[in-house]
Structure formats: structure tokens, C-alpha cells
Amino acid sequence: MNPWRLYLRSPTAVLGALLVLAVAAMGLLAPLLYPDDPLGLAGRPLQWPGDNPRFPLGTDPSGRDIAAQIFHGARVSLLIGFAATLIAVAIGIAVGALAGFYGGAADTALMRVTEAFQTLPNFLLLLLLVAVFGSDLRTITVGIGLVSWPPVARLTRAEFLTLRTREFVQAARLQGLGDAHLILREVLPNALPPVLVYASVVMAVSILLESALSFLQLSDPNVPSWGNLIGLGRNVLRTEWYVSAIPGVAILLTILGVSLVGQGLNDALNPRLAGR
Amino acid sequence: MSALDIEALTVALPPGADRPHALRGVSLRLDAGEILCVVGESGSGKSVMAMAAMRLLAPGLRVEAGRVLLAGTDLLALSEEEMRRVRGRRVAMVFQEPMTALNPLMTVGDQLAEMWRAHTDLPAAEVRARSVEALREVALPDPEGALRAFPHELSGGQRQRAMIAMALALEPEVLICDEPTTALDVTTQAQVLALIRDLQRRRGTAVLFITHDFGVVAEIADRVAVMQHGLLVEEGPVSRVLEAPAHEYTRRLLAAVPPLRAPAVRRAEAGGAALEVRGLTKVYGAAGLFRRRRATRALDGVSVTLKRGATLGVVGESGSGKSTLARCVVGLLAPDGGEILVDGAPLPRARAEAAKLVQMVFQDPYASLNPRRRAGEQVAQGPVAAGVPRADAAARARELFELVGLDPAAVSRFPHEFSGGQRQRIGIARALAMRPKVLVADEPVSALDVSVQAQVLELLRDLRARLGLSTLFITHDLRVAAQVCDEVAVMKDGAVVEAGPVASVFADPRHGYTRSLLAAVPGREAPGLGGGRPAPMLSPAGE
């Protein structure tokens, strides 16, 4: 059956897609609803949600509008999620495809590099990169991408290892086609589905990594990210807990949405495994 | 009194399958002490019937109506608990693939002992004694050693013997065999068939034997039931069904079995050698820096010559090196010694150059086409890579589709929209698109049903006549070799033991191994099989 129809038949997958779309819509609508700088002073600090009709989600310890930061933060989180995932998947597929397709010495060399990356906890590696290269948004996005590719490479390599010996690949080889054709046209399209599914995990982890950095106040302080807001609320956690809780729920729902999309993709692309 | 009575059994397939029912109102009686063969092509429902009787249907399949009576008790009405006591003790089963049917992490002895441990409370010493006795009965050499062996330490035939020992351990009334010899070599198959027959005679077990091979039927059956599309089309004593089949479908199936006798005269082709292989050697698993493995000589000084316009068959059992030879000839494997000459010149190392000289047709019609690309593209991509303009290559792909008996408009379809036989035709078109000097066919019909196999063989014969193809034809099936080959080379343990014109080799084999191969072909003496007439063409592209 058509993967799209399979996907749309699963209620949780549709819920996940709706959550992600809702976050995207928040990001798109942010400049219209909150045209002012979300990091600018808006009113008295630490007003509870609902106290003041101007601030439906209240204000933070510096007197900035939490709702404006949530809407603008959606852009930052999704942007970091997509860009970092793109970087991680691109590096991972390139490394995994070359290692899996050629095997032998190329495989050994590339896999040792992959393992070198994997032996370091990726958050520590990210901290190191931020400490060395600074913490503007671009550096952080690239950094998250750089620490997230090894699992993608391993997955791609495993797919390539089994697919490269298939008869249709041998047949294409016998037709005199070059390695680039074999890798890009014959093997990669068949190796892609599990990698796409895993990309949703990378995206969820990317968003979390950025939030964790912000919470430690190591992220870019000049962008209104959800993690920054959680970090700001840390000092008032026992009295004005909503400052941390509201962006926390936003992160939770976004990651839930991304994960459900990934699960739905998995079931739609591997229909034999679904329902078992 | 019948041992197993299947009454009007109807099994529904899940919605969206190609037909609503796997079985439709099948009634079959298995008497005590007889072997009933159920024959049919893939999709006929023969395995579903066996699984339904064991209540082991795959998820999605559902018994809609009917009864399965074991000595008067309806198995379908038993509770799960009661059914567990029936399986293994009263009805046992032998599966097709002995490697996957045995647990790779348990010794054969432990798996065999489980039969008694699960169903009886015999003491351990008694279980052990019976295990040894059971393995001795299936004629395993060194039964004590086999008990301690893990499945991978036994050969395929030995594993299947162990499976049979397990199935017969508790002396069941009914034994169900689902293609038990299909995965085995022909000489091993002959031994296992003789063993099943022998045990069945001695114990009086009723055997339901499922197979696609009429040769096997002729060897072992008392009665035959023929199935097609979930219906029982014919049933009767083996001699009557083979000699005077009543149903049209049975007649077609029997006619599609290739006769073992080769047509005596085949046009002698003048002209030199299209392919010459001289002293080819290939060693697997030579010692490397970090691993030491026992080196296997897969090819040991193999020399064969394929004349222009002729078909050279390479026959042998698994492990004889025939597939290694094919892969060396097309350049997928680099030989360790010897020469391969195509039209008198060595095979070029450059992939694009070699592609114009040799092409290959693969065994598995499902694995040999890329599932995500259109059929026509896969045929045209070779010529495009060789510099043919895209439009010309596409036009040529349509011509080739027509040549191999497919609808030219089907070039834009994806592989899953074709049947197995049609896919094999696409594989042939893909190979022909490069206009090769030599075509290597590696078991091109062994994954196909017998009627489809007959059509593809007919196509290959037809192409040879029309295009003057020179073909190296690898096969384990001597019947197939007799039909398409002019000359034949018999391989054993990486060496050619006998070679010559197929008619004379098959009529008067010189080497002992060739004689034992020919003697093991199932049903070679059966009337109705191998009558010497060429297989008739059925509808060209259907299955």
C-alpha cells in the first residue's frame, strides 16, 4: 500500500504531524503576533500567567513577555533541529555509504573515526566545541550536527553492507556502471528508509541538546530560545515555577511530535513490521 | 480407518490479498500407513493446508470453515493447551529448511531430548538412550557425536535427518513433511527420500508430503493430490495420476517437467570458441594478517570451452564451484590463477569494457531487480553508461521487452508489479541490452515454478536460435541441463570430472560421480515423466 495512506491511517502518527505543524505555525506567526523584540523589556517582572491580560503566559524575572519568547523560540528550536539534523544525516550517510560500500581499509579507517566520536559523550564534545568556537547560533547548530552523525553513519553502513551484495547491485556493476551510480542510484534509495526514521530521533536530540546548552547559559544569549528561558527560571524555580515549566512543556510537546512522526514513518515504510 | 481427515477446509487470506481464500473447501483423507503427496505450484495453498492442520497459520490467515479430524477428534476445536499435547506427540512436522528449523544455539542432542522432556516424564538417562537410538535409526553416522554437535556442524542432509529423528521421536500417527528435500542436493535428496519411505514402512506412520516436484512424487507417493489456487483439482493413486492425469492442470504440470533424456541430435555449430577458460583457480579464505582460516579451493584448475552459438551446461551439487566459476567469468570475482578468454582475448579489467563482452542472468528474480527503479530504466542504464543516447536506449529497452515476451508498455512499471517469471524475463532483457558475446546464466530457472520454468527455458532456446547466443548455463538440475545445453561439464569439488555433448554424457556417463548424479534424479524411471517431448508453450507471460 502507499506509504502516505499507511501513515495517515495511524492516529498517533497524525497527532505527531499536527504537533510539529503547530510548532512550525507558532514560529511562522511569531513576527505577526509579537512584532517587537521578544527579548525587550515588556512589563513588571514575574507576573503570573493570567494576572495581566497583556501577558497571557506571564513575564520572566527580567520583565520580558514569556508568550513572545515561546513563539519566537519555536523558530529557533525548529531551525536548530532541522539544520543540525541535515548536517548530521549528510555526514552520516556520506561516511556510512563509503565505509559500507567499499569495505576493507576504507571501512576500517572510517569506522575508527566514527568510534572516536562515539567514545566521547556527545554533550561533552558539544561543550568543548562551544568553549573553543564561541556560542553564536550558527556555531551551536553546526556543533550539534557534528556530534550527532555517528549513529547515522553506523546505520547507513549496516544497510550498505547487506545491500551491496544483492544481485541487483551486481547486475548494475556488470552493466558497466560506475561506483557513483551504484552508490547513489542502486543502493542509497533502498538504504534510506531506516535512516529517515532515525533522522527524527536526531532531530529530537538536537532540540534537547540546544535546550541543555541554554539551560547552562552556554547557548547564544541573544536569541529567544526555550532553553534560555528555562535557564532564566532556574533561580525562581521554587516560587515562580511557571517560568521554567512553560518552555519545558513546549519542548516536551515538540519532541513528542517529532518522535511520533518518526514512529509513524517507521510503520509506514516497514509495513511488514507494523502491527506485530 | 483414516489417520487424518480434512473436511471442506476453507482458509481466508487477509483483505487486500490477490484472492479472498488460501484454501477453498479442500477435503482430503490420509490413511494410516500411506504417503500422500500434495503437489502444487507456489500459491496453490499446499503449505497453508499443512499449517492449518497443525494450527500454526501465519498471522492474518483464518480458518473460515471445515474440520481437521485426527482419528475422529477435530483439531480445530481443541483448546490451545490440548493442541500443544497433539503437536509433536501425535502429529509431527518436518520443515523445508533444516538450518532455520533447528535452534543454532542448542546442540542437536538437547533439541531432540526436548521432545521427551516436553511430552513425557522419562528419566534423563532413558531420554539420552532414546536420543542415541533415534539418531541411529535415521542412519546418522556417529550418533553419539551428533548429539553433542551444534546444527552448523552438520551438513544439510544430516540436519534434515536430525529433524526427521525429532519428528518421529514420539512415534506420531501423522507426519507432515513440507518440502523436506527442496533445500538439499540431489544425491542427498535421494537418500533422505529413501529414509522417509523406509521409516514410514517400518512404523506404519501416515505421511502427508508436500512438494512441488513431480519427480519426488514419483519416488515416494502412494497417492497424489494436486492443488491449484487453493482448490483440490485431482486426487488418486500415484500411477494413475502420473500416467493418465484426468485434470487439465495436472496434464500441464506433468508436461512442463523437463525430460531427462536430451534430444539426440542438435545442430553442430561451426566456428571458434566464444569463451575459453583455462586452468582457472580460486581459493577462498587464504590466511590474512589477522585471521587464519582453512583455505578452500573453490576452483581447482578448471578448463572449459564454450563454442560460439552453443550452450554449455555446468552441472554439479552445491559447493562444487559452479557459481564461483560463473562469477569469475563475468568478472565479479578475481580468479587466483588461470585465464579467461572471450573471443580469444582476455577479459578486460575495466568494468565498462567487460560489460560489452559478458552479461549475467541471476538466479533470484526477486533480488536481481532494484525494487525502487522502473524496469525499463534498469534495462536501459547499461547502454546509457556505455554512451548510447538516452532516447535510443529507451527505445531499445522497449524492443527487448517485446523480444522476451513482455508488453513494451511495461517498461515504466516497477519490479513488484511483475510476477517471478516476468521478472526473470526482465533480467534476460537487461543482459541482452549490452549485446554481449557471452551470456552467463546462473541457475536462471531454479527459483521458478515448473510451468513458468518451462516458459523461460523455451524463451532461452528461442533467443539462442534467433540471436545465436553463446551461453554458459549453470544449473544443479540435470533435467533442465538436458533440455537447453549442447555440451555439459560436470563439476565436483572445484574440478571438472567429465565433459562432453550432453546427449552422450547423459546416455553413457563415464565418471562414477556423473553416474551417481544421474541415478539420484527423482522420478527418472517414472512413466509420464521425461517422455522425451519438448515442453509446450503456455501463455507467454503469465504464471
TrEMBL record, chain A:
UniProt KW keywords: Cell membrane, Membrane, Peptide transport, Protein transport, Transmembrane, Transmembrane helix, Transport
Q: Transmembrane stretches, by residue range? A: 12-34, 78-103, 123-147, 195-216, 241-262
Chief place where the protein resides? membrane
Cross-referenced Pfam families: BPD_transp_1
Q: What InterPro entries does the record tag this protein with? A: BP-dependent_transpt_permease, MetI-like, MetI-like_sf
Q: Which residues form the signal peptide?
A: none
Q: Where in the cell is it found?
A: Cell membrane
Describe the location of the ABC transmembrane type-1 domain by residue ranges.
74-262
**DNA damage among the record's keywords?**
no
Q: How does it sit in the membrane?
A: Multi-pass membrane protein
Task: Tell me the protein family, please.
Answer: Belongs to the binding-protein-dependent transport system permease family.
- What is this protein called in UniProt? ABC transporter permease
Automatic annotation (TrEMBL), chain B:
Please give the Gene Ontology molecular function terms for this protein.
ATP binding
Top-level lineage group: Bacteria
Region spans: Disordered? 524-543
Just give the chief location class: membrane
User: Is Lyase among the key words of this record?
Assistant: no
Q: How does it sit in the membrane?
A: Peripheral membrane protein
Cited CDD domains: ABC_NikE_OppD_transporters (cd03257)
Sorted alphabetically, which keywords does the UniProt record give? ATP-binding, Cell membrane, Membrane, Nucleotide-binding, Transport
Which InterPro entries does the UniProt entry name for this protein? AAA+_ATPase (IPR003593), ABC_Ni/Peptide_Import (IPR050388), ABC_transporter-like_ATP-bd (IPR003439), ABC_transporter-like_CS (IPR017871), Oligopep_ABC_C (IPR013563), P-loop_NTPase (IPR027417)
Q: Where in the cell is it found?
A: Cell inner membrane
Q: What are the ABC transporter domain coordinates in residue numbering? A: 4-254, 275-518
Q: Which family does it belong to?
A: Belongs to the ABC transporter superfamily.
Q: PANTHER family annotated for this entry?
A: DIPEPTIDE TRANSPORT ATP-BINDING PROTEIN DPPD, OLIGOPEPTIDE TRANSPORT ATP-BINDING PROTEIN APPD
Official protein name in the record: ABC transporter ATP-binding protein
* Biological source species: Craurococcus roseus
Q: Which classification does the entry list for the species? A: Bacteria, Pseudomonadati, Pseudomonadota, Alphaproteobacteria, Acetobacterales
